[in-house]
Specification:
Belongs to the peptidase C40 family. This protein is of the alpha+beta class. It has helices at residues 30-33, 39-45, 48-52, 120-128, 147-156, 166-169, 232-235; strands spanning 7-11, 15-19, 58-63, 67-74, 77-82, 94-99, 103-105, 140-141, 144-145, 174-175, 186-190, 198-208, 211-216, 225-228, 238-243. It is built from seven helices and 15 strands. The longest helix has 10 residues, at 147-156.
């Protein structure tokens, strides 16, 4: 029986998934919600359609030791917010549901992050360590990651807490003119030739042979990769850039 109660808690497993609701879990998702989750096996078992279907089911993930604020207990589940993953959905952090077995009571040092001392090149180098990682909607680890999770995790490894979703990331941070980009800046893409809603984020990775490049997690069925920013599929939708570095 879990001793977790409403209030501060901590992720007790290597990686847990943040679900929209307990009812969102499918039979194929059993390895992810097991008391000892096998996220690697879960991702490997899903075909392309099953991964696409995650869009309306999961929103993020949380690593061992990440702080959690439990707001409600319901059977074997806890409704939580994740303070290290800022979101417009809740002022206290990203909201969702986590299996109660994946949590433990908080301890005094559980909410400590590294001191943020870094440069854009440092953050980009951390992102490069995830090259080849599979795109998984809601993913936030080397097992699988989505575009905004890629940006978020690469910053957080340096003690920089930035919003979890691309649309929120595009509204925070330091605005950067598109003609003054530096490696490690986040660049954003929007529908309707850049005039609509933000739907994608990547890292500006500098120029390769005179061509501007991006490092990003593209979409389901692809892996973290470098991409030519002059390609019209992205060039026409480039709309904004932000920089997240310590003052």
């Amino acid at each position: 029986m879990s001793s977790v109660s409403i209030g501060p808690a901590t992720v007790a497993v290597a990686l847990t998934t943040l679900w929209r609701a307990p009812e969102a879990v499918r039979p194929i998702d059993a390895p992810a919600v097991d008391d000892k989750p096998d996220v690697t096996g879960w991702v490997a078992a899903m075909d392309h359609d099953a991964r696409l279907d995650l869009l309306q089911r999961v929103d993020s993930q949380a690593e061992a030791g990440e702080p959690v604020l439990v707001q409600e207990l319901s059977g074997a589940w806890a409704r939580v917010v994740l303070p290290w993953q800022p979101s417009r959905r809740d002022p206290d952090g990203y909201p969702g549901w986590i299996p109660l077995a994946h949590l433990r009571p908080a301890e005094p040092a559980d909410d400590e992050l590294p001191s943020p001392r870094t440069t854009g090149d440092d953050v980009l180098a951390t992102g490069q360590e995830l090259l080849g990682t599979e795109y998984v909607w809601g993913g936030l680890s080397g097992t699988g990651i989505d575009c905004s999770g890629f940006a978020h995790l690469s910053h957080r490894k340096h003690g920089l807490v930035i919003p979890r979703d691309a649309s929120d990331q595009a509204r925070a941070g330091q605005p950067v003119p598109l003609d003054a980009l530096q490696p490690g800046d986040l660049i954003f893409f929007a529908f309707d030739n850049g005039a609509g809603a933000v739907h994608h984020v990547g890292f500006y990775a500098g120029e390769v042979n005179g061509t501007p490049t991006m490092l990003h997690a593209p979409r389901t069925g692809r892996r973290v990769e470098y991409f030519d920013l002059s390609d019209p599929s992205y060039a026409t939708e480039l709309c904004a850039a932000r920089r997240y570095l310590p003052a």
